[in-house]
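Data availability (excerpt). All sequences and predicted token strings are deposited with the supplementary files. A representative entry, Polynucleotide 5'-hydroxyl-kinase GRC3, is shown inline so that the format can be inspected without opening the archive.
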Amino acid sequence: MDFALARTEVEIPAFHEWRVETSRTGVLNIKLESGTAEIFGTELTSNINYTFKESMKFAISTYHGCKISYTTTSPLDLEYISEETILKQILNLHLSIEKNNISNNNSNSRILIIGPKDSGKTSLARTLSSYSLKTSNSKPILINLNPQLSHFTMPSQLTACELYDSLDIETTTFGETMSTGPGTGLYRSQIPLVKNYGLESFTENLELYKCLINELSIEIDNKLSISNLKGNIIIDTPAFNVSNAKIIQHIINSFKINIILVVGNERLLVDLRKKLTLNDKVHMIKMPRSSGCIEKEPKYQRELQQKSIKQYFYGSNRCQLNPYTLHCFTTDFLFLKPKELDSSNMELMDFMNGDADDDDNDDDDYDPFAGNDNDNSKKKLERNWKYNNMFQIVDDPQETDLMNVIVSIIDDKDLDIKKLLSSNDIDEKEKLSIINKHVTMSSVLGFCYVSGFTSSTKKLKLLVPTPVTTLPGKVLVLTQMRYHE
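Structure token line:
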């Protein structure tokens, strides 16, 4: 049978959803024939072909009923209509949030989404962001604190993005990144604020993870205070459990959270109520887990990461890019890589350094609702982080360090690297601390991919998404992400 020529029509009743899993090699084209429909809160436009390539899992939902048609170049791995949806609960939640904002003089809600692995946290964050964008005059900010995901950028990063246009439903990265340029395709590009973590799991370096959360919250607060924006802040997270109560408390304090959504785990909700120290302005709400959530295999998760990296350099289906090759030398840059320290190793190092009583920068003494935003930001900036536990200098990077590695380019315009490294007045430990502090406080300018390296000459071959004669920064951080053409 020629699947490419066979157009199939599907009727989806109101408050139902059509769940789809595409094949790894197929191309699926979908068109909305009548009615209204959406994918994770982003509405479909009638008579527009939406193309989904490679392996993807998603659902088309409808509140009023709709008819869609589709063609595919190979059979779908799975497709069925489900009546077991949480559409009503999500809609009621969204309306309650908007009503609460209005009653509080149009202030923004700061929403933290917590739940176990593959419980639908990301889908909920995406849907609430899309609804907030459509129904209010403000622009929501979608924040990703899960290094394994690729929200608008590469995996292994923490991001915050102010949404001013519909999220792209055809990509795995939520939308085109800054590399695609403004005004291209059907959607304008979303420009995220990116903090370099470089590791895949938040547990691999809690000190760095908490510090970046703190710095991200400060920049968000500064942005909101300068522009006087009132959009909701919606935060997606890794699979936290009750043992991660301290890091959850740190997120609540840093971002001044007032709504906590616990997805698909009532026991977690009960345990967190006992563990967390919350102001009476903070509301904890249980959200049901969608029956459409499935457990992602590690192989599928890796495929999504590789796909997002490819999209960064080569573009999406609508807007293809031609990446450029840049030749340079390792001696032109300062290379760093994040330290891999699990919580037990960090506690041992703190004990050996005499910092055991510091309790890993405990935030219990910090009241997120005390004073104004400027006071809070100042207090957070003055916290004493263990910067030497975050990144380490790679003095002489070898082929095993560089080949096929994704590298973050750090904004270093306010740091004279050569002068700092050559100074005899500062010891090596203090130099590392200064560099690490600068990296955590700076944003990522972009990424490059090491496609070649010659050990004898120290010559690098870098793949970059835009035509440049030199990289915009001299500080490069080697991430755990690797890409193979």
